Amino acid sequence: MKSLHRILLPFAVFITGASVLIVEVVGVRVLSPFYGNTIFTVSSVISVILLALSCGYYAGGRLADRHPTLPYFFGLILISGLTLLFFYCLGTIVLPILSSKLSISLGPLVSATLLFLLPALLLGMLSPYAVKLQSVQFPEQGVGSVAGSIFFWSTLGSIAGSLSAGFVLIPHVGIDRILIANGVALSTLGLGSLLLLRAKKQRLYASAFVFALLLTTVWFVTHRTGRQVLYAKDGVYQKITIYDGQYAGRRTRFFQQDENSAGAGEGAMFLDSDDPTDLVYDYTRYYSLYKLFTPLVKNALVIGGGAYSVPKALLRELPGVTVDVVDIEPSLFFLAKRYFKVPESPRLHNYVEDGRRFLTDSPQKYDLIFSDVYYSFFSVPPQFATKEFFAIAKEKLSPNGILVANMIGDLSRQQPSLIMAEIKTFQAVFPNSYFFAVAWPEKTDSQNVMLVGYNSDTAIDLNSPAVLANRDPLIRFLSSKLIDVGRRFELSPYPVLTDNFSPVEFLTAQVLRRAFADSKPVDGDEMAADVAQQARYGPRNLGTPGHEKVRDFLLAEMKLLAQDVQTQSWTYTAPSGKTYGLINIIGHFYSADRRVVLAAHYDSSGAGADDASGAAVLVELARAFGDSNVPPGVSIDLVFFDGGGVAAGEKNSSADGERLGSKYFAQHLSDIYGDNKPVAAIVLDAVCRRNLRVLKEQSSMQSAAAQVDAFWKAGESVDRTVFSDRPGPEIGADQMPLIRAGIPSLLIADSEYPQVDEAPGKCASRSLETIGQAVMNYITLPERPGQH
Q1: What is the rounded distance in angstroms from the CA atom of residue 116 to the CA atom of residue 106?
Q2: What is the pTM of this model?
Q3: What is the distance of C-alpha 26 from the center of its chain?
Q4: pLDDT tens digits along 131-140
């Protein structure tokens, strides 16, 4: 019996050590379908397991000193196995709920703590417990020798568990079965040992009953009815599901890795079409851009197989093309042939390998490389997002070849930004590059963004008449989604991603945070980001590069957002004799007879934020008007005035171009409106200071008393602390020429105007959002502007 005890404890700690590492390795795969296989997921599981083990070592040592008996030891093993089975069942219920509520950065930590902390803690208690028991049973060995032996076998078991999980169990068994088998093995080891030790019958019966109850629950959980699928199995790297459903009203077969895309898959095929070029997802259609850049494609590489949509389309469309497909998941090619009609073709070559490694080692030059390597919702492997990867891809392109890379993010200017960092990184490798918003170039929602690098010095004008007149409607459609990066975005604060610095998971978390935040009619954070971008242009008064950049930025935004854009151009000769070109920008929204002007000047004598705040609010309002399904009953004209400040190098005098833009606009109203003059105007200026207070400006009260009262009513419903019901001084700003032209006009400006000019970092998003929301409320009042 003593020799059995000498073997039993080392064997037990070997098994439990293996179980801990199996739980740790498999735990990452349990959470990955819901949060992505990201650094957050890996770090969370490792941290929770280490915390559990450290607490378990301490608790196990204390408990062993009080109850140094074998029944207690094997009872802990039994409880750990039952706990593992219980939390497996719990996870199938709570993980879908938690993942829908928590971010990809916080969610893994919360979920790992809930599911793995207690089982790992119980398993951690066993090694110090075994040391105590072995030292009591064999005192002649010495505590040091006993501890060394026990931790040797425990660590050896951990090594065996880690290797078996990665090399044997996950590739061949499946995550669910691994966890269930682990729980059953521990429960059986504990219960069987207690039987041998002749533990109390009542405890044995109770334990057996709980074990049977949990096994029954596990059976129901694993066999519960749900979505009918054609194939569902854990691959080496992701869980793969293939199922039939509906998309755009058509019968569709979906390929899904993990639980990403909110129920939609990474790949799909219409079941009612035999044409491989009839693609389900719009982003896959961007392979067709080769027709514009390099029509004679002979060799193509697709990185990321999925449902093999792009390879099938290329084989059908280009009879002479050879297509290489590389994907690290071994089963995809077989599944694609079985479920997605991938043909047997000598022109199609499949490789099971990491895409970047394949590209590095390949001697082949490709005319087209299509990269689509997302392995879960919003989760791209960092090694495919860096400057080094894009450089490797460019090296393997033939002259005039193109790289098309799929990314997911948003076009928000808020920092940090995954897409802005990727665009900047891509441009560092491909000076001749093009970027496409698959859904909405004008919006800041999350979407696919396609990065296209052309291995040529020849620029392609996608807005040229030749492209716009292309007979292929798909090419015209794709060209319409081009992002005007040069004019719309200023990329200096965003990092270039490298192999040494590629925080893709962190940047992705910010995308998701914005994507799942509560929707707002206007977004103060977005306005603050617009202000910061304008401020990065530097001084924006007449005659400066910054003035041209902010003008181009606003023109590009209005061309995207407004239903129609007009400009007013004229020249101004300063007292110095120097001549300047000025441009007012007017974006029209809706088509009602009554018109309301919302205005701000966009030039500035400095690089501060206040002079940019009015224009930022108007840009955000333009986005809001574009999202509105119900016009407010009036036409809205957003007017960006030029010439509101002192020209560069000129003296500050009353004749030096002050309020030139609003003056010119007021003098030429008939050119735009004929006899139908705007019924009201709201001018915004300096509205981003922290603790902003807006007083009722004197000229506004005299010109538009009813409108002022209505606006303050709308503003107070947003924030009474901002809109002070007190008269303020008269301010000679852009409203004055409009008032003189007979338009009831009110100025919304900081009560301390013009003494303050906030630095961009101090521009308060809350103040901007308050002003923007007040304008929205005023525009949509039941008593419309112009009826007061």
Answers
A1: 16
A2: 0.83
A3: 26
A4: 988 888 777 7
